[in-house]
Give the backbone structure.
Amino acid sequence: MEVRVLVVDDDPMVRRLLTTVLAAQGIDVVGEATDGDEVVPAVAAHRPDVVLMDLHMRRTGGLEAIRELRRRPQPPAVIALTSFGTDETVVEALAAGAQGFLGKDDDPEHIAAHVRDVASGAGALDHESAAAVIRHLGGTRRLDTRRAEARQALDALTAREQEIASFLPHGLSNRAIGQRLFLSESTVKAHLGRAMAKLDLGSREQLAVLVDRAGATSPGAGP
């Protein structure tokens, strides 16, 4: 299938290399852009099927350019392209609307194959990027599990104990909590003591961590 590609990178050597590599694989590079703020006009002028988008550019980054493209009607597919990437970069690029993520040092034939895959509607992740997404999703699931477990633990407390404990992540003293809830300092101390005993916790700091993990922190409770 004929595939039209726009190459976006602020390094002229990279643009030239990608153009040469893709042309040798029978892919038509219809245009180039040197920074993220040139992408929308270049897409309008050249009507590419796929945009190879560098993520790190001088004026406007690739993530911002991808988001801007996704706001346009019938945007082309985008493959995020970078010479280095963390797990967060991969996930951010996909969340912004990229259909794929490739390294600049990937094999030329692989880059061309990924471009064709994306043009045909499939995604394109190199092995490292796919692993990064899996790690991120796994981390998200672990976070959700920890939050659910923390909320379940807090269910053992009375409503008043939960209310008082919700102020702990803000670092408030017993007296400050009492002032907000119109309770005496000793009453606050007694409720927290019972809460820690029920949860088998040795300190108010441990209870504060549990409350924070459960997402049960009282809003607007600054000192």
Q: What stands out?
A: The longest strand covers residues 28-33. The chain has a mean pLDDT of 83. The beta strands are 4-8, 28-33, 50-54, 77-82, 100-103, 124-125.
